[in-house]
Amino acid sequence: MRLTYLLKRLAVMIPVFFFVVTLVFFMIRFAPGGPFSSEKSVSPAILKNLEMKYHMDEPLVRQYLRYLKDLLKGDLGPSFKHANRTVNEIIAEALPVSVELGLLALMWALVIGITSGGLAALKPNSPFDYIPMTFSLLGICFPTFVVGPILVLIFGVWLEWLPVAGWDTWADRVLPSLTLGFAYAAYISRLTRGGLMEMRVQDFIRTARAKGLTETQILTQHALKGGLLPVISYLGPALAGIITGALVTETIFNIPGLGRFFIESAVNRDYTVVMGTALLFFAHLCL
Amino acid sequence: MSELSTAVPSSQGVSLWDDAWARLKKNRLALLAATFLILEVLIFFLAPLIAPHSYEVQDLERTMTGPSWRHWFGTDTLGRDLFARVLYGGRVSLTVGILASMVSAIVGVIYGSISGFLGGRWDNLMMRVVDVLYALPFIFLVIILMVYFGRNFMLLFVALGLTQWLTMARIVRGQVLSLRHKEFIEAATVLGIQRKWIIFRHLIPNTLGPVIVYLTLTVPAVILEEAFLSYLGLGIQAPLASWGTLIKEGVDVMDLAPWMLFFPALFLSATLFSLNFLGDGLRDALDPKGAKD
Amino acid sequence: MTRNRWFISFFVLWNLVAPGHCVHAAVSQVLHLGNGTEPKDLDPQTVTGVPETKIIQSLFEGLVDKDPKSLEPRPGVAESWKVSKDGKVYTFKLRRNAKWSNGDPVTAADFIFSWKRLLDPKTASEYAYQGYYFRGGKNFNTGKTDGSQLGIKSTDPYTLEVTLENPTPYFLSLLYHHSLYPVHQQTVEKYQMRWTRPEHIVSNGAFLLKKWQMNKVIIVERNPTYWDAVNVKLDSVHFHAIEKAETEEKLFQVKKLHATATVPTEKIASWTQNASGVLKRHPYLGTYYYWINVNRPPLNKPQVRKALALAIDREKLVKFVVKGGQAPAESFTPPGTGGFQPQAKLPRDLSRLNEAQALLAQAGFPKGKGFPTIEILYNTSEGHKKIAEAIQQMWSEHLGVKASLYNQEWKVFLDTQHSKNYMISRAGWIADYNDPHTFLELLTTGNGNNHSSWSNLNYDGVLEQVQKEISSKKRLELFQKAEDILLEELPVIPLYIYTRLYLLSPQVQGWYDNVEDIHPLKWVWIQ
């Protein structure tokens, strides 16, 4: 049953995947500028030679077929900007960093989000509810590009407790993962509260209450199970976003992750890297 | 308030709305929030009468001065009055935030509910389209749109709506899927009511709770995303600013001129809080079952 | 509260235990530099950017080196050289102890290979024009002849004879440019595109490439086979790839960097007040200016262009907007480029505002009446935006001329500029070599970088004459003539002369300010 489901899903995903490849491949070529346009303009002769080097002088359809052929072999091609690296190498180097940052951030998000959301649901309409919910709203309206620099200024520059940037020691990982986790914690906290509140009015909880269990017992033993369902269904897309979308956090803390390639490759018109990152993101989304 | 309710097709039973309105009136927090929002909108659109200075006139010899009697919110890096800039920025950001969110809500709700209601093969196909759109590199999408349509203010809403409706569609579809087999829908089907009517009369109104909550979260997201689009050259042009661009500017100088971050951020969060309280109030008012706590 | 305190002590402890990257003051000769964006590559013949240049200068050595203080050419791989009377033939004697990092000797053949590689159309080098000075260089690069016609030959492995197209007084200084550094033939041919990776690269400079982590750091270490290794004091240099100026500044503040690549504009003032003198500021051979598309009415009228140029208060602009102590541009070529002191033709302030207003009236727009709204284009950046906003206000206030601003993302901007689909566009030019020619040739007809559509045969003639002139006095006169034509016609509005601004720790020694921003790491040490 499970296997047939997986096979079915795969059978749907593969054509969709090739549709995405095709769409993205042709779409990015329509934007003005190319990988070789630069401030000092390149003479037409040199441009021709550069294009030849990357098979860009061929008709677009041939380039597309070449790309497909390489893709089937698992080869995402060479990067235009990072001349001595292939896209596969770039992803291999940056993805583990992103995954680590993403998982740490998710851990923060879960710990902060579930604790505060749980507290809020336990004592609704009390300070235990208002304070975490206020913070979670703040987390939603202050994006990472505001939270990150504020944390750096406080803990890195003024108090000097934690490093201001970098990705070497354990201490380096605290502020970036917290920054990235903060935004997600806000959502998780709201989802937790909402889910638990919904549970409180369910019949089996009422029965438990009638049996004389305390609210805390009810929460931890019965309500959490069902109440966290929305949180769990939120985690999938959140993880895809958190791993590939950490661009701002990565820039602020100078972390060599994948998020930076997302925007950098687009800005440089590094077509192969754009393709590679877009496909990777799509693959994450399908998981 | 009136903007929010336009998202809902008005072909509903009158009593439900009367009921909701009665409940909303009792929610003091929601009313307070609504009053605040209306006041804010008024102030922003009367900005030329209220602001003592122009938002664009520079005083290069008085840059980055703190709040004072002359400049209530201080001045920015070119010596412009921050109070005026925040007010004018509010005009831009609120318009963009609310309109783009509405676009995303309308498209997302209709798309999501159709997908969820049809189910099966159609649902599968429609959701794959959403997946594909998610995967398209957004920067290129915007750049290409700009190449073909120019720097058009309407394009801003299209671009912002484009990214936001996807998640909305997913949420609504999930909600509809779970509603599909509830008795009242099956009853309606058995009674031979047209599909169109089932979707608009019965399914959509019942998804409004999560939609409103998500909508109140979309508004700040859109307001901040506008700053990114102005990086690509779409959106408002300098010297006019939006809250998004003001906050971005403020972050870089927050240790030297904290007011440049504080005031726009204060306005953004106050607005968001009000939207959120109003949203919660509306949700509770529209959904008597969930309003017990 | 107690929990908070626990947190504090926990993190303090953590910092003590964690193997930090703190710079140890006492002996460690490890230099940490902020180096801007991630380098594209480290191939001397194909790269173009500043971050790449800084690293390549430590990995490779050309025929001549530069004195870190005076920038005078001094022996590098070449021990000595002779110049023929007509200034066209250079004979270099190579030192016999110059070695590649794999032990091979560096010979004349290496230079011949590398220079041919630079010019070879197949290499597709964007800096190929740096080889156009060699006789036959341009013809080879454009595919008109093959490499055998080049004016480069060796009589023995340690003698290199170079024949130039024209006498080029700044030729020796040109040899310091990375495009003319030697590369190791076997390595390049064996590994192709991947030869610059740490596991493959063979180089001949003071340092060796050890590690390359993308978007993070490039580490180079002292090269034991370098001929002058005894004089190299640093053990290793870490070039940190840091995109964001604010991040870099904070890393410097907590002493994890010895030097930054730049300083955030708004922070310049507070660093200037910092008594420790870590803020370094020196003029730089570059001009920030606006292109004017002379085909677009009303900008096709020279009076209009001049009125616009005269109505900008450059002094105010640099003092309050650009803020880095830059010099207002009174000419297009930065003063001091190759010993050239151009006469100031543009006012620093509004002293000629009356003239500007009169010119505008003459052109048919008294007090800006009937003047259509003009557009200023810039690529997205806080700095460019502020400058455009300030100029917008100056024109409106002083001339009654309305300008609107619009920004574009970098590559779209380049495309717009190139297709001349703009009215006024921001630009900057940084010298490729220390000679006014690098600035003034920009405006010649048919130059690929001339985005103004301006063409003046008189001007072209003057610059052609310069190419053939040997006397440096006459050359300077010709440059002045070119400047005069340019600032009368104004297809460009010069705004200010660049300043290099960065933070440098006082521990760093052997590092000198200069207009070319060259700091050979060979001479640097940490105190």
Structure description:
- The complex is a heterotrimer of chains A (287), B (293) and C (527).
- With 287 residues, chain A is mainly alpha-helical.
- Chain A has 13 helices and no strands.
- In chain A, helix 5 packs across helix 7.
- Chain A is globular, with a radius of gyration of 24 Å.
- With 293 residues, chain B is an all-alpha fold.
- Chain B has a single domain (29-42, 77-292), classed as MetI-like (MetI-like fold, Orthogonal Bundle), CATH 1.10.3720.
- Chain B has helices spanning 2-5, 14-26, 28-45, 47-50, 82-118, 120-135, 138-149, 153-179, 183-190, 195-231, 243-252, 259-286.
- The two termini of chain B are 23 Å apart.
- By secondary structure, chain C is α+β, with helices and mostly antiparallel strands.
- Chain C folds into two domains: 30-227 and 504-526, Dipeptide-binding Protein, domain 1, CATH 3.90.76.10; 283-500, Roll (Dipeptide-binding Protein, domain 3).
- Chain C has 16 helices and 18 strands.
- In chain C, strand 6 (152-156) and strand 7 form a beta hairpin.
- The interface between A and C is large, with 53 and 56 residues.
Strand order of the largest sheet of chain C: 12-16-11-15-13-14
Assembly level: heterotrimer
Head-to-tail CA distance between termini of chain B: 23 Å
H/E order of the elements of chain B?
A: HHHHHHHHHHHH
| Relevant CATH superfamily of chain B | MetI-like
What's the CATH superfamily of the largest domain in chain C, by name? Dipeptide-binding Protein, Domain 1
In DSSP terms, counting alpha (H) and pi (I) runs of 4 or more, how many helices of chain C?
Answer: 16
Shape type of chain B:
globular
**Main structural class of chain C:** alpha+beta
Approximate strand percentage of chain B: under 5%
CATH architecture tag of chain B: Orthogonal Bundle
* Low-pLDDT segments of chain C: 1-25
Q: How many strands in all of chain C?
A: 18
Mean pLDDT of chain C: 88
- How much strand of chain C? 15-25%
**Uncertain regions of chain B: pLDDT < 50 for 5+ in a row?**
1-13
Structural class of chain B: mainly alpha
List the helices and strands and how they pair.
The complex is a heterotrimer of chains A (287), B (293) and C (527).
Chain A lengths: L1 H27 L15 H10 L6 H13 L14 H36 L4 H15 L2 H15 L11 H31 L2 H8 L4 H13 L1 H16 L2 H6 L6 H10 L2 H16 L1
Helix pairs in contact in A: 1-13, 4-5, 4-7, 4-10, 4-13, 5-7, 6-7, 7-9, 7-10, 10-13, 12-13
Chain B lengths: L1 H4 L8 H13 L1 H18 L1 H4 L31 H37 L1 H16 L2 H12 L3 H27 L3 H8 L4 H37 L11 H10 L6 H28 L7
Helix pairs in contact in B: 2-12, 3-5, 3-12, 5-6, 5-8, 5-10, 5-12, 6-8, 8-10, 9-10, 10-11, 10-12, 11-12
Chain C lengths: L1 H16 L12 E5 L15 H10 L4 E3 L6 E3 L2 E6 L5 E6 L13 H12 L17 H5 L10 E5 L2 E5 L7 H4 L10 H7 L15 E7 L3 E6 L13 E5 L4 H9 L14 H6 L5 E14 L9 H9 L3 H9 L4 E2 L24 H10 L11 E6 L2 H18 L3 E6 L1 H9 L5 E7 L6 H4 L16 H12 L3 H18 L2 E12 L4 E2 L15 E2 L1
Parallel strand pairs in C: 1-10, 13-14, 13-15
Antiparallel strand pairs in C: 2-3, 4-5, 5-7, 6-7, 8-9, 9-10, 11-15, 11-16, 12-16, 17-18
